[in-house]
Amino acid sequence: MDLDDFELQLDQVIGRIATRGTIDYLVDGEEFFVRFIDAISTATGSVDIRTYIFDNDDFAEKIADLLRRRSNEGIETRILLDGLGTILATAADDESQPEDYEAPASVRQFLESDSGIDVRQSRNPWLVAGDHVKTTIIDEEIAFAGGMNIGREYRFVWHDLMMELRGPVVDELQNEFNKAWAHAGMMGDAAYVLQRLKPNPDSAEQLGYPLRVLHTRTGEAEIFNAQRAAIRNARNYIYIQNAYLTDDAMLYELAKARRRGVDVRVILPLVGNHGPINKSNALAANAMLEHGIRVFVYPGMSHVKAAVFDGWACLGSANWDKLSFRTNKELNIATSHPEYVDELLDRVFYPDFEKSVELTEPFPERWSDHLMEIVADFVL
């Protein structure tokens, strides 16, 4: 595709122009959490964390202890949790957790106890539309965004991806945090409206290359619309890695791209963490094979959420399912800057194609798998 023309097209599809910034990719838990801990430890003013899950395992407790200590040293610390996500995660223990570890009953109470941390939970009255965004902003100058929650599996077990961002994009992410924080407070919608009337943050360095912040929010399917447009414009290749690939509309678009000669490749994990999604992924893999799409099975759990379309990359918190495309709050970063796209290919996609096994025969199908697909399509 012509990337300059496509970026102009996205200005119309999304309704705003791109911002600017820099990206450093942090692949897997060791790279990310070493940098994450260092950034919190050296913060001079503020730490704002927005996460779907803050677990109660031994590793998450260490992060919580660091945040409590920093808050008591005068660092303004705000943590915005999705209540449902954290409740579901804390009810299950990762197999790698030490058997003698005693988890705190309430993550929120543990964070707030003997600390200056302010914790809020996103409003989710119908327990359907979760806040699935994962961003951390340090001193209004550095931001982290991507797919990792705070917990043991993200640090030690799963394959995953985060970004360290600098430049004006950080101001945009800070603005998004401030609005979500206000909305989660006592005044709810009124506080959100008042926050929107305030001037946007303007603290980050003026540096970097074009980056585009994309959202899924009520009435705004930007991540879906942008990636669908990318599929339709692609002429050479489409590479996707995602743990939850259940959106039939996108599968249809990928099949059409393959029919016109695009090299379409998808990486799915061998072992997922949701039973109905696993069944639906298997059926999706079979459908993709039938339409000539190359499917690769990653050896283990890959939680990476990234895609590249002819030199345009899109990655962040969003899965390829109906929840992420139409219901949950999600945040992705997109760019066509060649250096960032090439690095994503070199550090994530090419190594993961090598590690994975290409599927050559369809998975066995049972009638119950199709029932689970319905659950995945309309519930998960």
Structural class: alpha+beta
The domain count comes to 2
Cα end-to-end separation = 33 Å
Any idea what the CATH superfamily of the largest domain is called?
Answer: Endonuclease Chain A
Percent helix: 40-55%
Biggest β-sheet description: 16 strands, mixed
CATH class of the largest domain: Alpha Beta
What's the CATH topology name of the largest domain? Endonuclease, Chain A
Shape: globular
List the uncertain runs.
Answer: none
| Average pLDDT for all residues | 91
Helix/strand order = HEHEHEHHEEEHEHHEEHEHEHEEEHEHEH
User: What is the strand tally?
Assistant: 16
Number of helices: 14
Specify Rg, calculated over alpha carbons: 20 Å
Q: Please indicate the percent range of residues in DSSP E strands (runs of 2 or more).
A: 15-25%
Write a short abstract of this structure.
The protein is of the alpha+beta class. Helix content is 43%, strand content 22%.
